[in-house]
Amino acid sequence: MSGTQTWEADRYAKNARFVADLGMPVVDLLAPRPGERILDLGCGDGALTAKLADMAGAVVGVDAGEDMIAAARKRGLDAHVMNGHELTFDAEFDAVFSNAALHWMLDPDAVIAGVRRALKPGGRFVGEFGGHGNVAAICVALNAALRQRGVDGVERLPWFFPTPDEYRAKLEAAGFTVRTADLIPRPTPLPTGISGWLETFGENFFRAAPEGEAEQVKLDAIELLRPCLCDQAGNWTADYVRLRFSAALET
Ligand SMILES: C[S@@+](CC[C@H](N)C(=O)[O-])C[C@H]1O[C@@H](n2cnc3c(N)ncnc32)[C@H](O)[C@@H]1O
């Protein structure tokens, strides 16, 4: 359910280590306590899962990407390949944590229902993911480059970027009390430029390109983005907007 995106641990580490590095405020919002059992949903290669494991009693990571889970296991983590839409846990976690993963899961109600089932009474669901307006310029540029070739990129959007009100309503409908749900604009410097970002996260769009034109779609999108996301020294900054939330079940 994350389109045709593939997740390669080495490419992710090279182009997107900042994703986990910038996730520490979400760990702080969760405030893991010694002895707690925590699920990291969409744990990736486990960089933040390892931090949680240092703070809590036991941490389990799940992710749909086999290569990401292999990298998480290399860190010695308890990590498993699992689709976030089909969580199999039953009332066993004190908290579910998620960083930068929920926007890849395109049936959020199924995800939230699985999180609810996984939690003990009083359990917390704390996370951050792409919110309304996230990488808007990048989406527009990719859509424009595809549209020039007669392809509807909007249909290929691989992300769910809700407003806080939309996500709050989903959490409440599933029985959570929402403590906070806020949009956080976060212009994010890209260590390997826009090209590395597009190669890591933009696969869905390039697969939609007519045969043999994927590379040119990427180059066209880059030129559309250059005036807004690249400074005079050649540094690229992505127009990230995060949705950070904290919710809990009744005790
Ligand atoms: C940007 S990475 C974030 C990884 C990690 N949480 C971090 O902070 O570095 C997004 C992760 O979501 C995972 N993902 C995408 N769709 C998923 C799904 N349906 N179920 C589980 N994981 C999924 C990907 O495999 C990827 O590892």
Structure in words:
This protein has a domain at about 10-135 and about 160-190 and about 235-250: Vaccinia Virus protein VP39 (Rossmann fold, 3-Layer(aba) Sandwich). The protein is about 40% helix and about 25% strand. It contains ten helices and seven strands. The protein has a seven-stranded mixed beta sheet with strand order 3-2-1-4-5-7-6, sandwiched between helices. The mean pLDDT is about 95. S-adenosylmethionine binds next to helix 1 and helix 3. S-adenosylmethionine (SAM) binds near residues 20 and 64.
What is the CATH superfamily label of the domain at 9-135 and 158-191 and 237-248?
A: Vaccinia Virus protein VP39
CATH fold-level assignment of the domain at 9-135 and 158-191 and 237-248: Rossmann fold
In percent terms, what proportion of residues is strand? 15-25%
- Report the bound ligands by name, code or SMILES: S-adenosylmethionine
SSE arrangement, N to C: HHEHEHEEHEHHEHHHE
Radius of gyration: 18 Å
Tell me the distance between the termini.
32 Å
Q: What is the architecture of the domain at 9-135 and 158-191 and 237-248 at the second tier of CATH?
A: 3-Layer(aba) Sandwich
Average pLDDT: 96
Sheet/helix structural class: alpha/beta
CATH domain class name of the domain at 9-135 and 158-191 and 237-248 = Alpha Beta
Number of strands: 7
Widest sheet, order of strands: 3-2-1-4-5-7-6
- Report low-confidence residues grouped into runs of 5 or more: none
Gross morphology is globular
Main sheet properties: 7 strands, mixed
